[in-house]
Each structure stands twice: as structure tokens, then as C-alpha cells.
Design goal:
Elements (H helix, E strand, L loop, with lengths): L11 E3 L2 E2 L2 E2 L2 E2 H20 L9 H20 L8 H17 L12 H23 L17 H13 L1 H30 L4 H38 L2
Antiparallel strand pairs: 1-4, 2-3
Helix pairs in contact: 1-2, 1-3, 2-3, 3-7, 4-6, 4-7, 6-7
Length: 240
């Protein structure tokens, strides 16, 4: 049985070094580029004809568009419309990256905490900047709930600050942990199937079910990551 951790190793494809710093083009970077390329090709070809009666691919692209637009509208309101391009790009990047990572021999960059944490940090910094840009120093009132007794500030403010600063960590860990656990399970089950040979038909049936489940988890985690980003954006805009 192969080591289930080996699939997460980052390998350089094009070794590069600049000023003593390793900037090699790796398998992780390759999958990120592939994700952007697949997303661009899919959306470009899907809406190229812009048919009045949409075909299969145009319908799928429009469905995703309406899904994200509805998510943003429900969680942020009309004030969230200017941020639709970012939220849509974020969803597609995580979704396509998760799905491509399920292909045999590919690499799942969302199974690395450094990648998911950086994405979560971009969201965190972005919504914080938006909050201060819209409200100025009044944005700090978000750390002390309206109507709370002033005497409780010494307890509530540190709790709210810690909770706010932990957002990028919790957002990044959630995606990383789910994708990593799923791929480890698939590798272990696949190893059992190979070891049992002909008798591996039962583990193979179970592996197929888990694979279908992983496709669902890949889509669900893209949704969770995006909807939480929308909720954070809502807090920055409305401060409640």
C-alpha cells in the first residue's frame, strides 16, 4: 500500500532560484495555473454564442452565475454587488481546484494549509480594508455589541477581537482539513483494492461510493468557503 501522505508532497517541475530564494515552478503551481485555464476556457466557450435558448454548457455557466449572485444578494444585500467579480472568481478557483484534484495523478493545492490560509487571509484583509474604508474608526464598534453594558467591555472586546482575528485561520483550516482527509481516505481504500486483487470488488464498490461523496464534498467546501467570505463581507459593510 502506498503512503497516503506522498500525494501532498510539492515537487519542483522547473527548478528556479533567485537571490538564494527557491522560486521553482512546482506541481502545486501547475495545478493553480491549470485551474485558472480550465475556468477561463469553460466560461469563455460557454457564453461565446450567447444563445437566446442556452445550450448545455451555457446553462451551466448561467446557473453558476445566478447561484453566486443569489448567495451574494442573500448574505450581503445590494451593497455587495460591486464585489461580485471577486466572490465569483473565488468560488470558481476553489471549486475547479477541488475537482481537478480528484483526477488520478493530479495535485490538490487546496489540501495545503499555506494555500488555503493565504486565500483566507486575502479575504480577511480585503473585508477589513472595506470596513475601515466605509466606516472609518467607527468600524471598531463592531468589537463591542450595541446595547451591551459598558462594564462588560473588558470581557467582550478581547473575545470579539480574538474571534475576528481567528477568521482566516478557521476559514483556511476548514477547507484544508476536509480536502486532506478525503484524499487520504481515497488513497487508503485504493490501496486495499489493489492488495486484495480479485477479492477487492467489495472495497472497490465502497471506494466508488466514497469517490462520489468526495465530488460532493469538493463542491460543498467551495460553497462553504465562499458563503463565509460573503458573511465576513456583510459584517464589514453593515457592522452587524
Amino acid at each position: 500500500m502506498s503512503n497516503p501522505i506522498e500525494q501532498f508532497q510539492v515537487h519542483p517541475i522547473v527548478p528556479l532560484e533567485l537571490g538564494g530564494v527557491n522560486i521553482s515552478f512546482t506541481n502545486s503551481a501547475l495545478m493553480m495555473v491549470a485551474t485558472v485555464a480550465v475556468t477561463t476556457v469553460f466560461l469563455t466557450l460557454s457564453v461565446r454564442k450567447r444563445a437566446l435558448v442556452p445550450g448545455r454548457w451555457q446553462s451551466l455557466a448561467e446557473l453558476i452565475y445566478e447561484f453566486i449572485a443569489g448567495m451574494l444578494r442573500e448574505n450581503v444585500g445590494q451593497e455587495g454587488r460591486p464585489y461580485f467579480p471577486f466572490i465569483f472568481s473565488l468560488f470558481m478557483f476553489v471549486l475547479i481546484g477541488n475537482l481537478l484534484g480528484l483526477l488520478p495523478g493530479s495535485f490538490t493545492f487546496t489540501s495545503h494549509i499555506i494555500v488555503t490560509f493565504v486565500m483566507a487571509s486575502v479575504v480577511f484583509v480585503g473585508v477589513t480594508v472595506i470596513g475601515f474604508a466605509r466606516h472609518g474608526l467607527h468600524f471598531l464598534r463592531m468589537f463591542f455589541p450595541n446595547g451591551a453594558p459598558l462594564a462588560t467591555a473588558v470581557i467582550l472586546v478581547p473575545i470579539e477581537v480574538i474571534s475576528y482575528l481567528s477568521r482566516p485561520l478557521s476559514l483556511g483550516v476548514r477547507l484544508f482539513a476536509n480536502m486532506t482527509a478525503g484524499h487520504i481516505i481515497l488513497t487508503i481504500l485504493g490501496g486495499f483494492v489493489a492488495m486484495l486483487g480479485v477479492f477487492g470488488i467489495f472495497p472497490l464498490a465502497f471506494l466508488t461510493g466514497v469517490m462520489v461523496l468526495e465530488f460532493g464534498i469538493a463542491m460543498l467546501q467551495a460553497y462553504v468557503f465562499t458563503v463565509l467570505s460573503c458573511i465576513y463581507l456583510h459584517d464589514a459593510i453593515h457592522m452587524h
